[in-house]
Specification:
By secondary structure, this protein is an all-alpha fold. Helices cover about 80% and strands about 0% of the residues. It has two domains: about 5-55, no CATH class; about 75-220, no CATH class. Helix 11 packs across helix 12 (about 195-220). The longest helix has 25 residues, at about 85-110.
């Protein structure tokens, strides 16, 4: 019999986390972050090993790839919007990709970080399945990369729209590109929650293209 207790527990906790968002103190936390904290608490209090939990919940990892690909559907439905803004979009991709890689590299060197740590941080703004493969290819630590990617995504999901609002950026196209380029799927989920179709489309496009560009640059240079 297949051991699925971790799979079922994760699903139940996540669904409960979505309903807990009605509580004022928890309203600003993404369900993924809240459910992660609850799962950590449960696993720790019940003295369950991470290996046991991970083995029983591994189907979620397998679904990451198809879930990322499924985000392409809004692109097909809004292809005219993409072609209409193609110059701004492509320029934004290039700037976002190089900014994320260059700043991470130089900050790591300033703090005299080990090379494997720097390599692990380089794909931090890319969605998890792609980031982990990049990390493996260039000599990083995949587990550390996965953690950093999640933290980056959570930060973008919580503060991304607030920062852009503070900067007086009102264009849904610009907001979507910025969110998707910096905080991948988790940032995109915040656009979905706000029911902003243009933001979702641009954010989805950004996370896909940024992933491809980051892969090409990291593998070519590092």
């Amino acid at each position: 019999m297949i051991n699925l207790w971790g799979f079922i527990l994760t699903f139940i906790v996540y669904e409960c986390s979505k309903r807990l968002k009605h509580i004022k103190l928890l309203r600003k936390l993404p369900p993924m972050m809240l459910s992660g904290l609850i799962l950590i608490f449960i696993i720790k209090e019940l003295h369950i090993s991470y290996e046991s939990y991970n083995k029983s919940a591994c189907f979620y990892t397998l679904l990451l790839g198809p879930a990322t690909i499924a985000l392409a559907f809004p692109l097909v439905e809004n292809i005219k919007l993409l072609t209409k803004n193609k110059r701004a979009v492509y320029f934004g991709f290039i700037i976002a990709t190089f900014t994320a890689i260059v700043t991470t590299f130089f900050i790591g060197k300033i703090f005299h970080s080990d090379w494997n740590l720097i390599y692990s941080l380089l794909p931090k703004s890319v969605t998890t399945p792609i980031a982990v493969e990049i990390s493996k290819s260039i000599g990083g630590i995949p587990e550390l990369t996965a953690c950093i990617v999640v933290i980056t995504g959570i930060y973008g999901a919580i503060f991304g729209h607030r920062i852009l609002k503070w900067l007086h950026i009102k264009s849904d196209i610009a907001i979507g590109l910025a969110i998707g380029a910096s905080s991948h799927v988790l940032g995109t989920s915040s656009c979905i929650e706000k029911k902003k179709e243009k933001q979702v489309v641009m954010s989805t496009l950004a996370l896909i293209i940024i992933g491809l560009l980051t892969t090409a640059i990291c593998i070519s240079i590092f």
